[in-house]
Structure formats: C-alpha cells, structure tokens
Write a structure and sequence with these properties.
Elements lengths: L7 E11 L1 H11 L7 E8 L2 E8 L2 H4 L2 H5 L4 E9 L14 E5 L2 E8 L5 H10 L9 H13 L5 H9 L7 E5 L4 E5 L8 E5 L4 E4 L2 H6 L2 E6 L5 E5 L2 E5 L10 E2 L1 H6 L5 E2 L2 E2 H15 L6 E4 L5 H11 L7 E3 L16 H5 E3 L1 H4 L3 E6 L6 H12 L4 E6 L27 H8 L3 E4 L5 H5 L4 E2 L1 H4 L14 H10 L4
Parallel strand pairs: 14-23, 17-20, 20-21, 21-22
Antiparallel strand pairs: 1-4, 1-10, 2-3, 2-4, 5-6, 6-7, 7-8, 8-12, 9-10, 9-11, 12-13, 15-16, 18-19
Length: 474
C-alpha cells in the first residue's frame, strides 16, 4: 500500500469548432501527476461522440495520428486516472459514455463515493447491468435514470446529487452542454477559466488552465453545478452550503501540483508552511535540509527558513521513470532506480530529510539507507503530514489499517524500523496552518468522517463481487 495520485478531469467549451482534442491533450499532460494508469478523451462531433481511451500515460495513449483523427468541435471531456475504486483494466478507462433514451452523455469523475456499494446493489436489483467496476458508472446510471423523468440533464444531475455521498468532482457532456459539478463537501478540487479567444476550460487544478493558455476565473463551489451552453453560463447552487466544506487536506500535502491554487490557497505556500511547523515542533542540530522529490521539496524549504539550516538538493529523481519500468526478475531496488542520493551534498553531514508521508515505512527505510550509503552521518526524518491511522473513503488509496505502520508502532519504533536517528510527524492540530483554514477533511489522520462510514470498501470491491458471482457462490 502506498499513496497514489488522484484522478484528473478536464473539459472544454467553445462557441465555434476548434481542435478541442489537442487542447485536452495538453490539459491532461498538466494533470498527469494525478493519474498514470489510463486516460481518455471524448469529443462531441455535433451530437455524435468520438472517443479514444486506453491504459498508459498521456503521450503513450495519444499519438499525433490519434489526435489528428478527432474532428474539430465545440466541446470535449477528458480524464486521466488513478483508480481508487476499480481495477486497472481498459474497461474502467474514463470518460464513461452512455447512450440513453434522451440522448448521449460522457462523464469524467475525480473522487470516490462512500455509498457506492449500496447504490450499485440497489441499481442491480432494479435490473441495471454494469460493464465496469468503477463507481463512476454508478454515477452515470443514476444521472441517466433521473434524466428520464426531468426536462434537462442538469436537473437530472441535481436530482442525482441528492443520492450520491462522498467525493465527486465531475465534468459531464451531453449533446449540447458541458456541465461541471462538485460534491457539497468539496472534497476534491475543481475550477474553471477562459482563454483570450473566449474558450472555457474546466479542470481539476489551475495548473491545467495555465497549460492551455486559460486565465483562472474561480473554483467551482462545493455543491455547485455549472452549465456551459449556447445560452451562456448558468450556475445552480441548490446544493451549496448544505454540508460543511471539507476539502481533502492531502491535496495540499501531496496530490496537487505546487503551482496550483486550490480554493484560494497556493499549494506551494501550504507545503512551505508545513515545513515551518515541523522546524518549530521538531528542531534538531543538522548541517543540511533536503526534501524527497517532489512534494517534500517545498516543505524542506520551509524547514530551512525557520531552522536556519541550509537547504540543499540531496536526492535526485529520475525524470524518465513513469509509473512502471522494466524489472526482470525483480532483482533491483525500485527506490534506487527512481532516486539517487547526491553524495557531495550529504557526505559527512547531519541530514534533515523531509517527506510527505509514511504509509508502510518500506520506502522511507530505503531512502534513509540511500543517504547513509552516500555518507550521511545522521538522518533525521520529518514528515509533512500526520501519521495515517484510518482508512479513507473519499479517494485516497488507503482502504485498510492493516498496512499502516503508525497503527501498530510508536514514533520511536517507526524511527528505528526505517533507520532514522529521529522522526517527527506534522501534528494534526497544526493542519490549519498548512491549509489556511479549518475547512478540510483529515479523517485519515483523526478518524472524524464527514459522511456515514461504509461497512465495506476497497479498491477492488466490485471485482471481488464479480469473482464471487462467476465462481458460483451466489
């Protein structure tokens, strides 16, 4: 078990036909850090959907010839995936497309429904047949079902939001409209902007707006539905302020790119502040402060600013390693392939190492070992997140306490297990200083869940159910 990226959603709406697929491509590139399992683009060709989806990175799935095969259009939706519910198989690639009695729909989803199993079971009992094991298909089914009895797709989405629980930032496309929505808690980020040519862009993070030449306008409010069509932009807020705001604080710690601004808070500022807190709470005599690439770098800078210990580059990340690499026979240490210690920076020195989290502890132990092999005399580890103590039901890939090292060992024991001279985690009561407010979810740290806790949850929950059925146990 380890912390993985979230999904990234992207949408585009233009008054005149343009090369929307290429813009989506660059938008997905900017969101690649949020998901490296699969990606997809669906283009609306005057009511006919043209799509391409597959497993792999953005540049692997979308070749130049593939992009050129898309027609010019006024709108499209796109998605890059790390699955927190549903296995890594092609059928789970998004956006999901639906043909129904009232028309067509394509939907891209970031987040995780906490009541997915309950909803899916109810739909199956009413005759629904699922083709994927992703909870996104559950959202699509409910929206489609509601669409049969209401006049517009946005009405259907609003009705569906009465049923959905948990985290969902959505970009949805019908034959004539582009619609985005954010769950009433605002667990996952979503924003929109506009290019100089008047093209509207919706994206999980503001960094994707900038990548395609769009200027940030604002974040989508928790509970808001925003509709782009020939009638202009319409905002619906019947679900706004029905729940307390609970943005996932791990967006600031790890998920988001440091150049993004989420709900008015620059991610880089949040990470620097985390490092400042660590320096204040866990001072130590040392010669250099280094960060584990990439999300530990800004926190290391913050630690240096408060402690006065010089900041340096002590670890280098191999920029050509994606989500996988060839490892015949598993004879190599994966950490050594992905990271290298800078011997000239750490040899003979007392090192403060800043990283974003410790889950099982195996990766941390290997990084500490790398630094000692490079000649570090002491390694003091500081973590810019509190200890993980509880499973997450909203999109962070932690569905069990079984492999969480902090659930079974004290901080002193963890330090010994990973080979560090000392260890300090960000105190959970100091998260306000990182997030800039108290309007966030940190249930994976303190166990205070905003929604009802599901009785069964898991990344491969629906695959397990299908295996049981296929095995004849039902």
């Amino acid at each position: 078990m380890s912390i993985h990226e979230e999904c990234g959603v992207f949408g585009i709406y233009s008054e005149t036909p343009i090369d929307v697929a290429t813009i989506c491509y660059y938008g997905l590139y900017a969101l690649q850090h949020r998901g490296q399992e699969s990606c997809g683009i669906v283009v609306n060709d005057d009511g006919v959907f043209v799509s391409h989806k597959d497993l792999g990175l953005v540049n692997e799935v979308f070749t130049e010839s593939e992009l050129h095969s898309f027609p010019k259009s006024i709108m499209a939706v796109a998605h890059t995936r790390y699955g927190t519910t549903g296995n890594t198989i092609r059928v789970n690639c998004q956006p999901i497309e639906v043909n129904h009695q009232k028309g067509r729909m394509a939907i891209a989803h970031n987040g995780n429904l906490s009541n997915a199993a309950k909803l899916r079971s109810s739909l199956e009992m009413s005759g629904a047949i699922f083709h994927t094991s992703s909870d996104t298909e559950t959202i699509a089914y409910i929206v489609t079902k509601e669409r049969l009895s209401v006049p517009t797709i946005e009405d259907a989405l609003s009705r569906a939001m009465d049923t959905l629980e948990g985290a969902y930032s959505l970009v949805l496309m019908s034959s004539t409209k582009l619609i985005c929505a954010r769950d009433p808690y605002g667990f996952r980020p979503l924003c929109y902007g506009q290019t100089k040519d008047g093209i509207y862009i919706v994206a999980s993070e503001s960094c994707a707006l900038h990548a395609v030449g769009a200027t940030f306008i604002r974040d989508i409010e928790p509970g808001e539905i925003l509709i782009f069509s020939q009638d202009g932009i319409v905002s619906r807020k019947e679900h706004c302020q029905t729940k307390p705001k609970k943005l996932c604080v791990f967006e600031y710690i790890y998920f988001a790119r440091p150049d993004s601004i989420i709900d008015g808070r620059p991610v880089q500022v949040a990470r620097i502040n985390a490092g400042k807190v660590l320096a204040r709470e866990y001072p130590v005599e040392a010669d250099i402060v280094i960060g584990a690439p990439d999300s530990g770098l800004d926190a290391a800078l913050g630690y240096s600013l408060v402690s006065g210990i010089p900041y340096g580059i002590g670890l280098i990340k191999n920029k050509y390693i994606g989500r996988t690499f060839i490892d015949p026979g598993n004879r190599v240490d994966h950490v050594k392939i992905k990271l290298s210690a800078v011997e000239s920076a750490v040899k003979g020195k007392r090192v403060v190492l800043i990283d974003d989290s410790i889950v099982r502890g195996t990766t941390s132990a290997r990084i500490v070992s790398l630094l000692r092999e490079a000649g570090a005399t002491e390694v003091h580890m500081r973590v810019s997140a509190p200890p993980f103590l509880h499973p997450c039901f909203y999109g962070t890939d932690i569905d069990s306490q079984d492999n969480l090292i902090a659930c079974h060992h004290s901080i002193a024991e963890i330090a010994e297990m990973i080979g560090a001279d000392s260890l300090g985690f960000l105190p959970v009561e100091c998260l306000d200083e990182l997030a800039g407010s108290d309007k966030y979810c940190c249930a994976c740290f303190d166990g205070h869940y905003p929604t009802t806790v599901p009785s069964d949850i898991g990344k491969n929950l629906f695959e397990q159910k299908l295996r049981t059925i296929n095995g004849g146990d039902v």
